[in-house]
Amino acid sequence: MSKNKVKSHKGLLKRVKVTARGKVRFGKTRKSHLMSHMSGDKVRRLRQPSFARSGEIKRLERMLHRPLMSQEQAERLDAAAEAQGKEAADKA
Hints:
Blueprint: H1 10-15, E1 16-18, E2 24-26, H2 40-47, E3 50-51, H3 54-64, H4 71-91
Antiparallel strand pairs: 1-2, 2-3
């Protein structure tokens, strides 16, 4: 048995939230000040949370020591579940 404990990256944990399904949600950058030159649409888009994409997931899994899901994976799973639901409804 290893004497070293597995610890999550504390700096990352302060900046992200892992959802119940394992998606990693975080806030966008460049929105703390110097926003007067940005359009209103840009400012409103910056308020929306971002989710980790598939290229970042492996690195984040290593830092947090838990399985995670990218936004793309979640969309594929939702589409597959919806398709199965439609098939079941058509058969019934």
